[in-house]
Amino acid sequence: MKTNNTLSAAAGTTPAAIGIFGGSFNPIHLGHIALAKEMRRQLHLDEVWLMVTPLNPFKAKATNLLPDSQRLALAREALRNEPHIHARDDEFRMLKPSYTWQTLQTLTKEHPDKQFTLIIGADNWLAFDRWRNYQDILSHYPVAIYPRQGYPVDPATLPTPGDSGYPRVTLVDTRLYPVSSTQIRERVARRQSLLGLVPRHIIRKVRALYRAANRRGDGSAVNSQPAGKA
Which residues constitute the domain of residue 123? Predict the structure, then answer.
């Protein structure tokens, strides 16, 4: 498969650099947004696309997600003042469970004028050999890793551009953001403040949606949900 860079070079244009940051965003929070902005800055990306996933393959029986449309709408509302970060629904139209390799292939085909970099946490990198077609991902796309507490990554172990023709795998030095979607759901269930955890303009919607989920008894507000997917 040709890479985005090859296709764009053939067309004589410079590809737009796009970071792909996947997750359930259940719900989106200020840590997600700050991290996306920092990754964009350090990696010199034109945009970061938050790829809202409908289902994590490692949690195929999970029932603690808000409906896809609600998580997407919350994310888009949260990002309304962030012109370079966009919440995307591309995976909603793919077969479930969705896999990152499938997503990247589809994006490459649909957007030949863009060059995609996969953004993942250190926890996901340490389990990367469990991902579907992970070697193909490494062969075709740069990967940028951000730190996660308790998941140390030794930069010396990362593939280099000379390893089997891989694009670069980079460990990006970002701060740790002490906020999680699980924490937000728990605080909603306990009727605690969400200030400083989600953008102010979506606090009311977050409370309403997750309180309604609690009333339905589906566990959305209190069960844990993994960050990222394979």
Answer: 4-176
Indicate the Cα dihedral angle 154, 46, 17, 73, nearest 10°: 90
pTM of the model: 0.86
What is the per-residue pLDDT across 37-49, written as a single tens digit (0 to 9) for each? 999 999 999 999 9
How far is residue 152's CA from residue 147's CA, in Å, rounded to a whole number? Answer: 8
The per-residue pLDDT for 3 is: 47
Distance CA 220, CA 186 (A): 9
Residue 123, domain member (yes or no): yes
Asked whether residue 142 is domain-assigned, the answer is yes
Per the structure, the count of domains in the chain is 1
Distance between CA atoms of residues 54 and 68, nearest Å: 6
User: Which amino acid is present at 112?
Assistant: P
Quote the DSSP letter at residue 156: G
Mean pLDDT of 140-148: 96
Q: Which of 44, 213, 60, 41 is nearest to 132 (CA)?
A: 60
Q: Is residue 202 part of a domain?
A: no
State both tokens at 140: 């075709």
* Sole residue written with tokens 């996901």: 124
Could you read off the pLDDT of 105-132 as tens digits, one per residue?
A: 999 999 999 999 999 999 999 999 999 9
159 belongs to a structural domain: yes
- Paired with 52 in beta bridges are 23
Q: What is the CATH number of the domain that holds 90?
A: 3.40.50.620
Tell me the pLDDT band of 170, cut-offs 50, 70 and 90.
very high
